[in-house]
Write a structure and sequence with these properties.
With about 240 residues, this protein is an alpha/beta fold. The chain has a single domain, classed as Alpha/Beta hydrolase fold, catalytic domain (Rossmann fold). Strands 1-3-2-4-5-6-7 form a seven-stranded mixed sheet, with helices on both faces. The radius of gyration is 17 Å and the shape is globular.
Length: about 240
């Protein structure tokens, strides 16, 4: 994980999980909006950015176990997890591991992906390089200056394919006990990867309060222009503190 601000004795800890191909830096813009007693951390997946020499993770549960182990070594603080797309699934699995370690999270924020047990069914990870790169570019997941660079494509595409495969083939363990934390969901109404009518199925992952907020735009809109999303996350955490 990467610390995106410095808080000596945090009351709250917000841990952010990137999408497939995303890095911890995707959440750097969140730092100025954090309350002074909230520590902001972001996960750096193996094979990405400063971990580029490492092999990509082999499963979402492997990723979750590694993050939970790292979090369990930190000092006490109320812990909340935010994840977008693949990151939402990793955050959910991390919440389960922390629960089993006796360190349940306080809030789980999930964005831009169907509920864990809904059949994803996509096979994008099996298509050819040109088709996959084009699909990612059209979705908004590839920066324009990267999209037309053949050397960067050759470097990034294998890792992207690996993490897209994890997302598309992921299935949670059967008969999983629900969490007890609050769950707040987000999706963009023009996101081709999310069926808005089915997004409410996320409510079943926890016995805690569930709510949803939507915005117009595509899959990456709320991260590309994150002010409203960040404000909602911060206000949700503040509200949960009052209600605690």
């Amino acid at each position: 994980m990467r610390a995106l601000n410095s808080v000596e004795c945090p009351a709250d800890r917000l841990v952010c999980f990137p999408y497939s191909g995303g890095t911890a830096a995707a959440y750097r813009a969140w730092s100025p909006a954090m309350p002074e007693d909230t520590e902001l951390l972001a996960v750096q997946y193996p094979g990405q950015a400063d971990r580029i020499v490492e092999a990509p993770a082999s499963s979402i549960t492997e990723m979750a176990s590694a993050v939970a182990a790292e979090l369990s070594q930190l000092g006490p603080a109320r812990c909340a997890l935010f994840g977008h797309s693949l990151g939402a699934l990793v955050a959910y699995e991390t919440a389960k591991v922390l629960r089993d370690l006796g360190q349940p999270v306080h809030c789980l924020f999930v964005s831009g992906t169907p509920a864990p047990w809904q059949a994803h069914g996509e096979l994008n990870h099996r298509v050819g390089d040109e088709e996959l790169w084009s699909a990612l570019r059209d979705l908004g997941g590839i920066a324009p200056d990267v999209a037309d660079d053949p050397e960067l494509r050759e470097l990034l595409l294998p890792v992207l394919r690996s993490y897209i495969a994890l997302s598309e083939t992921y299935r949670p363990a059967p008969h999983t006990e629900p969490l007890t934390c609050q769950v707040r969901g987000y999706y963009n109404t023009e996101d081709p990867l999310v069926n808005g009518a089915e997004f409410g199925a996320w409510a079943a992952v926890s016995t805690g309060r569930f709510s949803v907020r939507t915005w117009p735009g595509g899959h990456f809109q709320s991260l590309a222009d994150p002010d409203e999303l960040i404000a909602d996350v911060v206000s949700t955490l503040a509200e949960s503190e009052v209600l605690r």
